[in-house]
Write a structure and sequence with these properties.
The structure is a single chain. By secondary structure, the chain is α/β, with parallel strands linked by helices. The chain has helices at residues 21-33, 77-103, 116-127, 153-169, 178-186, 230-243, 258-262, 278-282, 297-304, 315-320, 334-346, 348-365, 368-383, and strands spanning 2-6, 38-45, 52-56, 59-67, 107-112, 131-136, 172-175, 194-196, 217-221, 248-252, 267-269, 287-290, 309-312, 328-330. The strands form two sheets. It has an eight-stranded mixed beta sheet with strand order 3-4-2-1-5-6-7-8, sandwiched between helices. A six-stranded parallel beta sheet has the order 11-10-9-12-13-14, with helices on both faces.
């Protein structure tokens, strides 16, 4: 029995370059599944092509002869259109050929996360009588994560149409959060097909380090886009520049708001680093802020390092973490964020206790071994 995970981005072992959230999740899921089934992860290649990379006796990366896309580069409409077209034609065609080949070797299940190319892949799997799981980690287009600007109606409509079709064709749907599941149900996707399995974290890699005493350093980890709340982040930093001049910010991320943020005096940018070095960056800060509305992989990585997280209050996080014990919740309000930063800055003991409790919570409920068990139950329910 063989399981195929189709990753949309670069899966690199070891992670020399920074890996996106979804490929990282695909890789970690693959490791957990490989304890029970033979598993293959497809990935585009970077720099030098090699067909296979063996991870363990049951897991290997199958590199497709298609260059990985640099997601950190600036994007314009022409570039985005060409990249999408190349994925639909070249990458998807090669994936389909490999699905057909692997069917002869016992391919029983395909896990995928792309909406556009995923529809074609699911249809091929149906013809070959191969089960499929559509794995959705993005809130868009199921609900709007944008704090100020609304997405373009055409973009929303196209993404929603392809997303709904992928959901209806797939045998099962895995969503990363309650909010995504609610959005799907609102768009008449059968709730019986949907399973919520959050992202996990490698708690051995993402752990607290002994760091030097600092005055007050607040971190931010994520893309500097409207979706991630970068506009709110800018207002928080600008207000702190006046009201809390002793507070400094360190940021790891890029995007449209990067230029605006660099004009502030209380901020330092971290250059892009591979994921295995990420815990070093996280441990440089005393606390982190998250202006993203949904539950993200970076949230878990921060909490796993024992750092207090000040985050927008959401139904998802409310059910998972206790306010003022394992996390600090905020309204979508600049003043509230600034007040919570000040609270932790002035209460070192509270800051330390929240970080320690958060770490214990993540170890118990979000380590990849725990999340892997949830994936295995989902897979077994489909293949039995």
């Amino acid at each position: 029995m063989v399981i195929l995970i189709i990753s949309p981005g670069l899966v690199e072992v070891p992670p020399i370059r920074i890996i996106g959230g979804i490929p990282e999740i695909d890789y970690r899921i693959g490791i957990q599944i490989s304890a029970h089934y033979k598993t293959i992860i497809t990935s585009p290649f970077y720099y030098k092509y090699q067909k296979y990379k063996k991870v363990n006796k049951n897991l290997k990366i199958l590199y497709i002869y298609h260059p990985a896309i640099n997601r950190s580069a600036k994007v314009n409409i022409l570039r985005l259109s060409l990249e999408t077209l190349s994925i639909l034609i070249s990458y998807t065609f090669q994936i389909i050929i490999n699905i057909i080949k692997l069917k002869k070797y016992g391919l029983n299940l395909v896990i995928l996360s792309e909406r556009y190319s995923g529809i074609i892949q699911i249809m091929i799997c149906k013809l070959l009588k191969i089960k499929t799981i559509f794995s959705e980690s993005n809130p868009y287009p199921w609900y709007s994560p944008f704090l100020i600007k609304r997405p373009h109606a055409l973009s929303w409509g196209v993404n929603l149409s392809f997303g709904k079709l992928a959901c209806k064709l797939a045998d099962k749907i895995r969503t990363q959060s309650i909010l995504i599941k609610r959005g799907m149900i609102n768009y008449r996707i059968s709730k019986d097909k949907i399973e919520i399995i959050p992202a996990g974290v490698d708690t051995n890699t993402f752990r607290p380090y002994n760091s030097d005493e600092t005055n007050c350093v607040v971190g931010f980890l994520g893309r500097l886009t409207e979706e991630k709340g970068a506009g709110l982040l800018y207002d928080i930093m600008k207000t702190c520049e006046k009201e809390l001049p002793e507070v400094k910010f360190i940021v790891l991320g890029s995007g449209p708001y990067e230029y605006m943020l660099k004009n502030l005096k209380n901020i330092a940018f971290q250059q892009t680093i591979p994921r295995n070095i990420l815990p070093t960056f996280i441990n440089k800060a005393d606390m982190f802020v998250s202006t993203y509305y949904d539950f993200s992989l970076s949230d878990l990585e921060i909490l796993s390092c024992g750092k207090p997280l000040i985050k927008i209050n959401t139904p998802e996080m409310n059910k998972l973490f206790k306010n003022y014990e394992e996390i600090i919740f905020c309204d979508r309000d600049v003043k509230d964020f600034v007040n919570k930063i000040k609270l932790l800055y002035e209460n070192k003991d509270l800051c330390k206790k929240i970080g320690e409790r958060a770490r214990k919570k993540v170890e118990k409920e979000f380590d990849w071994k725990v999340i892997g068990e949830q994936w295995i139950r989902l897979i077994n329910s489909l293949l039995k």
